[in-house]
Amino acid sequence: METKSDPQPLLTFGFMKKIFSVILQYVIFLGLGIFLIWWTTRSLTPQEINQLKETLRGAHYLLVIPAMVMLMLSHYSRALRWKILLEPLKIRPTTTNTFFAVMLGYFFNLLVPRLGEVMKCTTLARYEKAPVDKVIGTMVAERAIDFLCLVVIIIATILVQTDIAGPYILGELRQAYDAKGGISGYMGLFLSFLALVVFFFLLRWVFMRFPENKVVSRIRALILGVWQGLTSVRHVQRKAAFIAHTIFIWTMYLMSIRLGFLAMESVAHLGLTPSLTILSTGSLAMIITQGGIGAYQLAVQKSLVLYGIDAVNGLAYGWLLWAVQTVMVLVAGLICLLILPIYNRKKHESVQPGNE
Fold this sequence. Notes:
Layout: H1 13-41, H2 46-57, H3 65-86, H4 95-111, H5 115-128, H6 132-160, H7 165-179, H8 183-209, H9 214-230, H10 239-260, H11 272-288, H12 295-305, H13 311-350
């Protein structure tokens, strides 16, 4: 005789804890962005605020279109690079689904911090029937590569402009170092490394002690899948294409800033070296707050002051650049969100027996 089991509550403690964590992250990142917006505008006089509005109204927005095209090309190139990274794992998604997943990653990152990475991987895994753990591993590898690229760009910015941007960036890094307490910062790194080593050996002991346990087996399979994705860089066959896409992505970022100068008369005379500085500081700022709101505008403003641009025009250009990137991601993300299920339904129908 079958007995009915009690229905599981929809709102479990674990589920509510996750929801609360997401909301808390959203509030913190968004709150920090709003604070930075207030911080950048608090010292402006009414005349300067009017100047800021007039500068933004008088911008040549048609000249922003080429910059948007370059950014979109960089995202498409990122999708192609991701495909190359997935090849050693025998995962061969369509270019369309890969591009949609990339754009949805950017889109959801604007809404909730770090949600984009999850949506990017789960979207591709779902529609391409790929192991999500391996896909996540390749995403982590991508992030590591982009971080190395950013480090190279920051070093290049310092070396190329030792008299202007170099002292500014080194000063910012020194302040960050001092804020962490100097030697105590190294102690924190050491303790973090030590904790990682202890965790590794503890995990290894659990795996050896309970090899048949279902939960342990699932965790081990998940870690193995992520590790395979992470190390897929070593086994990339089309290395030249992978490097070419990486260079192209960052070149498009740089040139979109350079072309963006033409949209505003007060900065139209600036060239590649200021663009390199903005790429360095702006990329760091995008990490600080949700979608870079507040932080990106401040980073651009402080960077342009180095080149003789007054604070108001620098802030205006920061808003222009941020708005171009944000609007493009929102519009493209919404379009991809709508088209993705339609595209995959038609693709599925086209391979059904009798439709070939």
